[in-house]
Amino acid sequence: MLTLASSVIANETSLVVAIHVSAGVETLTRDQVINIFLGRFRQLPNGHLAIPIDQDSDHPIRAEFYRRLVGKNPAEIHAYWARLIFSGKTTPPREAESEEQIIQWLMTEPGAIGYLPADRLREPLKAVFTLDP
Question: What's the pTM?
Fold first, then answer.
């Protein structure tokens, strides 16, 4: 179970959208990040496939990411995806079991793009967008 400390950390830490340095993307705009994580775009600006990765649905970082990015709470994001899945328009981001799994996927899967606390960023990953508290 996640603790209150995890929730406090989520509220006080910058979150970065990260990608492998070999992806060839320097930065993303807020609109590009929104479009990738809400299933509207399936490509990075350079034309390569984008594979968005979410934190586990109960993780406070996930709730904080979507609150900062689009001003939506977990229930609103869940409802958004339920509508899109039902209509067959797109699929939600892949869901990781842990931050470590996100980091592993970012390091090994071309096109993988995920978010994590800024202090968890390490080479060969780089931040392409930052959400400050």
Answer: 0.90
Q: Which of 72, 15, 11, 7 is nearest to 38 (CA)?
A: 72
Rounded CA-CA distance 63/41 in Å is 21
- Structural domains of the chain, with CATH: 4-116 (3.40.190.10)
Q: Residues 27-43: pLDDT tens digits?
A: 999 999 999 999 999 99
The β-bridge relationship of strands 51-54 and 15-20 is: unpaired
- Give dist(CA 63, CA 96) in Å, integer: 14
User: pLDDT digit string (tens) for 77-93?
Assistant: 999 999 999 888 889 99
In contact, 33 and 19? CB cutoff 8 Å? no
> Which residues share a beta bridge with 125?
20
